Amino acid sequence: MKKVFDVLLAHNETKAEAFINEVNGKNPLFICTIGTTETAKIPGISAAGEHPEFTDYTPPADAELLLLGKCKCIKGVPVTPSGIPTPALISMSALKLADIPILVASAGLKVKPYVPFLDLGGSPGRDIRTGNAVDNVDEVVQRAIIAGKQLAKTADYLVIGESIPGGTTTALGVLSAMGVKAEGKVSSSMPDNPHRLKTEITSTGLSAAKERFGSLADNPVRAISCLGDPMMPAVAGLVIGAAAQVPVLMAGGTQMSAVLAIVKALNEDVLCNVAIGTTRWIINDKTSDLKGIVSQIANVPILASDIGFGGSKFYGLKAYEEGIVKEGVGAGGAAVAAMAKVGGAITKEMLLKEIERNYELLMEKK
Amino acid sequence: MKKVFDVLLAHNETKAEAFINEVNGKNPLFICTIGTTETAKIPGISAAGEHPEFTDYTPPADAELLLLGKCKCIKGVPVTPSGIPTPALISMSALKLADIPILVASAGLKVKPYVPFLDLGGSPGRDIRTGNAVDNVDEVVQRAIIAGKQLAKTADYLVIGESIPGGTTTALGVLSAMGVKAEGKVSSSMPDNPHRLKTEITSTGLSAAKERFGSLADNPVRAISCLGDPMMPAVAGLVIGAAAQVPVLMAGGTQMSAVLAIVKALNEDVLCNVAIGTTRWIINDKTSDLKGIVSQIANVPILASDIGFGGSKFYGLKAYEEGIVKEGVGAGGAAVAAMAKVGGAITKEMLLKEIERNYELLMEKK
After folding, report:
1. Is B138 near chain A, with CB under 8 Å?
2. Is B43 on the interface with A (CB under 8 A)?
3. B320 falls in which pLDDT band (50, 70, 90)?
4. CB nearest A143 (choices: B100, B102, B116)
5. Distance from CA of B210 to the nearest CA of A (A)
6. Which of the 8 DSSP states describes residue B86?
7. For residue range A19-71, what is the model confidence (pLDDT) as tens digits?
């Protein structure tokens, strides 16, 4: 796979190369959009917390880690049940190395972070099996568009990531409602991707909403309201507001493909300014298919940071190579942006060292 | 008084000229910090609302006007009891003309705006006569410092304004507690400045807090907690976080002198990067003395937009020349920044035309 710097041109190579060249040497703003959904608490769905209730704390803890270099609402850092650390560790290390400004945006939270955050007017999401998952979707989209327009004036381009446990299940829900074949294709933070469970949840949600596969292809607001999560209208609005003026890197895995479908349905014109930035772990994942989803939606490029943890001395990082965590908190996009900001002067080796340094510091503190 | 563009070098001329030259042609970020205090509801204190309860709506309505060009939480726009429009009209016109990005920050609100806002963790303020006016001051300062640090990376410099009715009374309270002689010197949005009432309120508050003039000179956090308002820790933190990296224009009248005293007591080093930006109406006001307050605190420059409404065809604007409103929502600083961004290509005549155009549009809508 062709690379520019340590960034893989993972999909739509020509466009991917044009995107990385366009942002080469430029100053981005990184926005981490955090939210929660009760969907994450369905047993077997998320690895983002040791107990289902912990998923309420993961997004604010990630936000604190990004801005403070440590968490305040929990001790230590968010980890999977087996002790593997949050991908916010990657994002934080990359953004710090490249001195990229960070803004946290709340899309709807049960627990608020002890750091400043942009309030986009959303509220926490419900279990999508109810078919009535998110309130106030249209208003959040509109507010996020306003924010995106203003923030686009403060940077050469935006990198927009997310932290919302359960988000690949809601992604499957919205993609299905909008007629994108994503069954068996969405990613998971666990090595054993619970596809059957996600499909069941989506079916239950569609029935409860009296909808079916594809019935909401032209109604993304209702698709989110029924089967989505609060992150989606927030990120979609930010992308729409910003991408009319500057390039936008949607930083995430298959969750961002659901946002892509929403953006396309709301304002297709901005897609020429949009790319997806993710990790090598997502691109190489045998249990999901980001490219297969994206190519059904739009002809946007995918870039992936080439960073790997195979050579790390820490088990907690090495585990990423076994398909645990893989992506989140905009980790892949943040790494891409850090490398691009300095014309490749930050390499994957340098980034790994910084991540290991921060990992050690945080685990000591714990 | 010497001018650069249509900006008066109103105080500390050499430093003022250096500041305007430093920001000439540069891209600022405008932050409007909004909050409420029960102090505004003391009869006779504020002109920011027709009825005391309206003061809860003025800051969010100002924020909406800045971002949407119209208000959502109220009909029309905030006006004084005699129908004179909010200075947000000036800020909005200036920022729009010069295409300056806007961020709204909430320092503590009773009524939330229907637009995105940065939540700094504060809560609405109480009547300062209780001597127990603001909660969580230290935490808000710390969070605002974090935000200021990040936002400083997104712009060449920051312009930080405020909208908080009752703010000149709380300014007198904090300045007095910190030993700055401000009695009879703070400004008012009304032509008859109720100095005696403000002094009484401050005395009552000092007694209730078991403090006296100057007793909190070295304890700005307690000065705000006892006699201040929520805007103060938010703006002070933003200034401290940002001014370590980039210039900061504190956009306001005598309310900003209270913040200046707080910033000095918390981190004097940043003051070399700070100026106050205000209006000609404040500089020429016979009922207040911004320079007299500032010169007791620190050797920072004051710049003032030279815009006047004497030649306006609208009574609602002409009234500004009679000492009504005068300043607020960062009007003076926004005008200074708009002129400086384009090297003076925006003149006071052009700005007046834009303000009149928006005034007409908004009054028609009403």
Report:
1. no
2. no
3. very high
4. B116
5. 31
6. P
7. 999 999 999 999 999 999 999 999 998 765 558 889 999 999 999 999 999 99
